[in-house]
């Protein structure tokens, strides 16, 4: 088999066989097929798509590229959540303490920022010491002792996806239903949970720009889950405007702590509660979402969620004192006010532009080897739908590098419409 022929076939709209998919994935993972050929295949897939059989084949090839965890020995139900990515989407962070307080095991394997979207791992690493690089033995030990482990994909879990994910991030080939399905499901199936909740985003800041496409992606994820003998539920959520008030790694931990106290912005707290309720229903802890929601809300005042978060941080070598003192996560040196140029109503606050602006401040990566600045980001003082007076502050830009500011401000202006 020749990689050239596989690329050519897909470029012409052909359907790849399982052995062609295996050949490309095995060859790329082992380093025999170079980045540029895989990038060409990804672009061909992006334009020509993959049918469900190809998507399933790609998922299986990527699962088989690494090891699988077996969680069948645990007495408690296992459930993981996955978001398809957004701007200001920190929901996994408050969700895990909430769900584990109900005796559900959450084996959470997350990713890093991808394109204009943030990643849970980068956010968690804003907490001093927090270690997401945990191998199989410690992962299973943490699940047993603490009902969760919030980790990155190890070298051994779906290594094909790990390499592909980084390549897609820098070759504009992320937004493909087949590629996203295989990427997410290869990690989820290898990680071993029996239940999944998918938060599939749509809108300008999501990989799926329309609700209809998000629905398609949700169906694709659910179908692969079912074929693998696991159970899934999903939520379609709006990502036309940033979620919550904070965009950027450290800032999103600050907001997560507020949510765990029962505070924080309404949109991000509501989505956390909705996803939590669905997880508690799918795992059989509650019969209905209403019952689950009632109990979830009751527990804020007990402090149990913060205790759980502190324990999770501590068990992963982080400093749990950040919960009481967010200043222990080093803030950015500078803050710039972004002000309204006129009086009116904020008609549009575009998630994509705001996401790119945060990335340009240092919160995300332009190239896969880039380091990020955990303290950089955007704090929204106003949200879409709010009224503003001329010169009123709309957002605060947290930054360390003065040279990055002008570009970031330009993207904010491009993403804002006041009428
Ligand atoms: N999240 C993933 O894990 N993979 C994708 O391709 C997109 C979002």
Put the structure in a nutshell:
The chain contains 16 helices and twelve strands. The chain is α/β, with parallel strands linked by helices.
**Structural domain tally:** 3
> By helix and strand content, what is the structural category?
alpha/beta
Residue share in β-strands: 5-15%
Overall pLDDT confidence: 95
**Span between N and C termini?**
59 Å
CATH homology group of the largest domain: Nucleoside phosphorylase/phosphoribosyltransferase catalytic domain
**Unreliable spans:** none
Q: Could you tell me the number of beta strands?
A: 12
Count of individual helical segments? 16
| Distinct compounds present | uracil
Give me the CATH architecture of the largest domain, please: 3-Layer(aba) Sandwich
What is the succession of H and E elements? HHHHEHEHHEHHEHEEHHHHEEHEEEHE
Shape: globular
CATH topology name of the largest domain, in short, is Pyrimidine Nucleoside Phosphorylase, Chain A, domain 2
Largest sheet: 4 strands, antiparallel
Widest sheet, order of strands: 6-9-11-7
* The level-1 CATH class of the largest domain: Alpha Beta
Evaluate the radius of gyration.
Answer: 21 Å
Q: What helical percentage do the residues reach?
A: 40-55%
Task: Walk me through this protein's architecture.
The protein is α/β, with parallel strands linked by helices and 419 residues long. It is globular and about 65 Å long. It is built from 16 helices and 12 strands. The chain has helices at residues 3-11, 18-30, 35-48, 52-64, 92-100, 120-124, 136-146, 159-169, 177-191, 211-227, 249-260, 266-282, 289-298, 304-315, 351-363, 405-414; strands spanning 79-83, 106-110, 148-152, 195-202, 231-238, 246-247, 334-339, 344-349, 377-380, 387-388, 393-399, 416-418. Helix content is 46%, strand content 15%. The strands form 4 sheets. It has a 4-stranded antiparallel β-sheet with strand order 6-9-11-7, with helices on both faces. It has a 3-stranded parallel β-sheet with strand order 1-4-5, sandwiched between helices. The chain folds into 3 domains: 3-49, Transferase, Pyrimidine Nucleoside Phosphorylase, Chain A, domain 3 (Up-down Bundle), CATH 1.20.970; 79-323, Pyrimidine Nucleoside Phosphorylase, Chain A, domain 2 (3-Layer(aba) Sandwich); 331-418, Aldehyde Oxidoreductase, domain 3 (Alpha-Beta Complex), CATH 3.90.1170. Residues 84-85, 111, 114, 165, 174, 179-180, 183-184 line the site of uracil.
């Amino acid at each position: 088999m020749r990689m050239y022929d596989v690329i050519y076939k897909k470029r012409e709209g052909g359907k790849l066989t399982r052995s062609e998919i295996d050949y490309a994935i095995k060859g790329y993972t082992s380093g025999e097929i170079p980045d540029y050929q895989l990038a060409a295949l990804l672009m061909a897939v992006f334009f020509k798509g993959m049918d469900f059989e190809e998507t399933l084949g790609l998922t299986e090839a990527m699962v088989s590229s690494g090891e699988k965890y077996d969680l069948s020995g645990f007495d408690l139900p296992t459930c993981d959540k996955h978001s398809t990515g957004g701007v200001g989407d920190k929901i996994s962070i408050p969700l895990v303490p909430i769900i584990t307080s109900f005796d559900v095991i959450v084996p959470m394997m997350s990713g890093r920022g991808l394109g204009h979207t943030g990643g849970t791992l980068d956010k968690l690493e804003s907490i001093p010491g927090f270690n997401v690089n945990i191998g199989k033995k410690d992962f299973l030990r943490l699940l047993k002792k603490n009902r969760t482990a919030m980790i990155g994909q190890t070298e051994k879990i779906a290594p094909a996806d790990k390499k592909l994910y980084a390549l897609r991030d820098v070759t504009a080939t992320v937004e493909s239903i087949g590629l996203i399905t295989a990427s997410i499901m290869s990690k989820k199936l290898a990680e071993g949970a029996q239940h999944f909740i998918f938060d599939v985003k749509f809108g300008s800041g999501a990989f799926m720009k329309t609700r209809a496409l998000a629905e398609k992606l949700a169906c694709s994820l659910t179908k692969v889950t079912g074929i693998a003998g696991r159970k899934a539920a999903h939520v379609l959520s709006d990502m036309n405007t940033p979620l919550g008030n904070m965009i950027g790694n450290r800032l999103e931990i600050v907001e997560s702590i507020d949510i765990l106290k029962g505070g924080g912005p309404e949109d991000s707290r509501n989505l956390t509660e909705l996803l939590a309720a669905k997880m508690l229903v799918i795992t059989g802890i509650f019969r209905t979402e209403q019952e689950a929601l009632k109990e979830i809300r009751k527990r804020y005042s007990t402090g149990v969620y913060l205790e759980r978060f502190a324990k999770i941080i501590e068990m992963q070598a982080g400093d749990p004192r950040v919960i009481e003192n967010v200043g222990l996560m080093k803030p950015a040196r500078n803050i710039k006010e972004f002000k309204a140029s006129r009086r009116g109503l904020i008609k549009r606050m575009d998630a994509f532009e705001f996401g790119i602006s945060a990335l340009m401040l240092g919160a995300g990566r332009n190239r896969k080897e880039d380091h990020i600045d955990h303290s950089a980001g955007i704090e929204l003082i106003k949200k879409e739908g709010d009224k503003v007076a001329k010169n009123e502050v709309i957002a605060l830009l947290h930054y360390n590098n003065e040279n990055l500011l002008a570009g970031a401000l330009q993207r904010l202006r491009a993403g804002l419409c006041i009428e």
